[in-house]
Structures are given as structure tokens and as C-alpha cells.
Amino acid sequence: MTILVTGGAGFIGANFIHDWLARSDEAVVNLDRMTYAGHPGNLSALSGDPRHRFIKGDIRDGEQIDTILREHRPRAIVHFAAESHVDRSIAGPEAFVFTNVVGTFNLLEAARAYHGTLADEPAAGFRFLHVSTDEVYGALQADDPPFTEASIVAPNSPYSASKAGSDHLVRAYFHTYGLPVLTSNCTNNYGPRQFPEKFIPVVIERALAFEPVPIYADGKNVRDWIHVADHCAALRLILERGEPGTVYNVSAECERRNIDLATAICDCVDTLAPDPQGRIRRTLLTRVADRPGHDFRYAMSAARLRETLGWRPERSFADGLRQTVAWYLDNRQWVAEAQARLACALAETA
Ligand code: NAD
Ligand code: TDX
């Protein structure tokens, strides 16, 4: 048996594939365009593993997806591929619409045609898992209760609007065509292999280099954090035991203010990589201009996932953060390659 993963050279997709192959002999076909965010080093440990087949391709190309489904006949699709960085969506929204909305539409269309070709039993077992985000629900104020699956969808950035658009298409393919879809909406992930444009790796890298650590506005914005391995475990469970047509929110219910998180990371870098001159990294935190339309707070309840599928996160935030900082300190070549890819992408958009 085989599953098709899209976006498996990126942060969460690569962690998912590594976890999957560590737990199962089932093969993975990995379709990834290798944008700046797709990192070759995320897959290098799998070279020579016959269970992993990498295909450089684009979800904006519907015919290519048709061919892959015909040739590899997966029992499931796990869809990660996306443009994922909010700041880039503000600077240039178009790519987000084409990959996140049109790309997901292409994948759904191809899956619908493919599902129709399956005989009764394999067709019943087929699953399309769409990996999405808490940002589709918009922003909370300090005293609001956390988002649930019943919260109103109210995206505020081009990124979250494009993800909400894709979520709506996925829902429509269940109700209209009976495609057995599942949607997961997860909070902010952190962990190994996260691209160094996202907040936690930005803080680690700037702190390590004794450069100013950029904190948008007053740093009081709140994010709800989950270790990527806990997210991947939730996705495996949803894929195997989730009810088609259902949305599952994934959250470790771990809210932190950006300023507090950045301070904790600086202290952790001080511990793991002490400065011979005794400089203290938290002094590097520097207030910079705010992100336009910056969502104030995300927080999400995982009650449905807990109560219906028995999922629990396994890692404490303190342990997960320390292990993440250690991973960045131990993987300097990976970081250098990611920064080179980022510099190329920034030069192209300048
Ligand atoms: P990422 O940017 O690290 O990786 C995205 C991957 O998709 C890259 O490998 C890239 O090459 C690939 N890709 C981009 N456009 C493509 C295209 N047109 N065709 C094929 N491949 C393409 O993203 P991530 O942080 O790993 O996020 C993965 C998914 O999880 C996204 O759908 C994102 O919306 C969702 N998500 C992310 C978070 C988070 O905190 N990072 C939280 C919740 C949900
Ligand atoms: O340099 C920075 N300084 C800063 O203060 C950066 C890059 C971010 N921030 C703030 C903005 C946010 O409040 O930190 C917070 C986290 O920012 P990001 O890492 O850009 O994440 P966010 O915008 O919350 O979106 C992330 O979580 C949900 C992912 O990038 C999305 O793909 C996911 O869907």
C-alpha cells in the first residue's frame, strides 16, 4: 500500500514522512515543487530507502496529479503543500491563491476522478486529509474562549484567506461528491526543520549571532504552540480513525506571548551556547514595526480530537523548545542551506 504526501520536503510534511516511515512499512510518494521552503536536507536521510519516492512536481498542474494517482494508486492523500508564510502573503498574495486555493482544487478534482475508478472496497477505505491552520478562524481578544470547530471562519491575512478557501473546497467535495475528506486545523508548530523565516528559528538564529531579535510591535500577541511531532501523531490518528467529512482542531493548548517566548529562547541559547564574553541574549530583543493586520491572539480547544479519538500531546513545551534549540545548534549546514534558499527567494521578489 502507498500514501501520497504533498509538500513533503517542507517543515511539517518532512517530519510527517520521517515519523511515518519510522512506524510503518507503507510506502510514501512525496510530491513537492521544491520552492524556497522545500529543503533537500529534509529528505537526505531517506535517499536509498525504497519506501520513499520523491517526485518534483506542482499541485498547480492537474494533469501531473492525475498521472501520479493513476501510476501509484495511493490509499490516501495527505495534503501539506502550500505557501505558508504570513508575511510573504502580505508582500505578494498571488502565489498563495494559486498554490493554496487552485492547487488544492486540482488535487480534489484529481482525487475525485481517481476515487471514482476504485472498486467498492478500496474506494470506501480511501481518505483525503487536508492539513490546515487555526488562522482560518481569525483573531481572538484576551478574554475570548478558544476557537472550536464551530467557530466562525473569519481569516484576516491573504495566507489565512487562501487556506480558508481551500478548507471550503474540501468541505464542498465531501457534501457534493461524497469524497471521503478529513480536515485538520492546527495551531503554530515548532520543532526541527522549520524554515528560518518563522518566528522561533528567527529568534534562535539572531540570538546565536548576537543580532537584534525582531519583535513585532509590543510583543504581546499570543500564539498557541504545538511540537511538530505531536501534530504528526494527531494527523496519523485522524487519517486512520477520523470520520470522513469532519473537521478536527489540533492544539496542545499552550499559549505564549511572543515577547515571553523570545525571552525564553534567548535564555535557552545562553544555556546551550554560552557566550565567552558573558553577553546576555535577551537584551537583543528589539521592537520593530508591526505586521499589517497582525492577528492578536490564537488559541484553540482540542476537545473533539481528545474526546473522539483519544489524542493527547506528549511533549511539554519547555522540553520541546530546549530540544528544538539544540537541533538548530547541531545542524548548522541545514541552517546555512536554508538561509541561502531564503536569500535567493528574497532576491527574486525584490
Ligand atoms: P513549509 O512552507 O515549510 O512547506 C511547504 C512545502 O510545500 C514546501 O516543501 C514547498 O516546496 C511545497 N510546495 C509549495 N508550493 C507547492 C506547489 N505548488 N506544489 C507542490 N509543492 C509545493 O510549510 P509547513 O510549515 O510545513 O506547512 C505545511 C502545511 O501545514 C501547510 O498547508 C500549512 O498551511 C499547514 N500548517 C502549518 C502550520 C505551521 O505552524 N507551520 C500550522 C498549521 C497548519
Ligand atoms: O520576526 C518575527 N517577529 C515576530 O514578532 C516573526 C517572523 C514573527 N513575529 C511574530 C508574528 C506572530 O505573532 O511571531 C508570531 C509568529 O509568527 P510566524 O512564525 O510568522 O507564525 P504565524 O504568523 O503565527 O503563522 C504560523 O502559524 C500558523 C505559520 O507560519 C502558518 O503557516 C500556520 O498556519
From TrEMBL:
Its cofactor is NAD(+). It comes from the Bacteria. SUPFAM superfamilies: NAD(P)-binding Rossmann-fold domains (SSF51735). Keywords: Lyase, NAD. Pfam families: GDP_Man_Dehyd. Gene3D superfamilies: NAD(P)-binding Rossmann-like Domain, UDP-galactose 4-epimerase, domain 1. GO terms for molecular function: dTDP-glucose 4,6-dehydratase activity. Transmembrane segments: none annotated. Residues 4-324 form the NAD(P)-binding domain. GO terms for biological process: nucleotide-sugar metabolic process. Its EC number is 4.2.1.46. InterPro entries: dTDP_Gluc_deHydtase, NAD(P)-bd_dom, NAD(P)-bd_dom_sf. Belongs to the NAD(P)-dependent epimerase/dehydratase family. dTDP-glucose dehydratase subfamily. This is dTDP-glucose 4,6-dehydratase. It comes from Aurantimonas marianensis. The lineage of its organism: Bacteria, Pseudomonadati, Pseudomonadota, Alphaproteobacteria, Hyphomicrobiales.
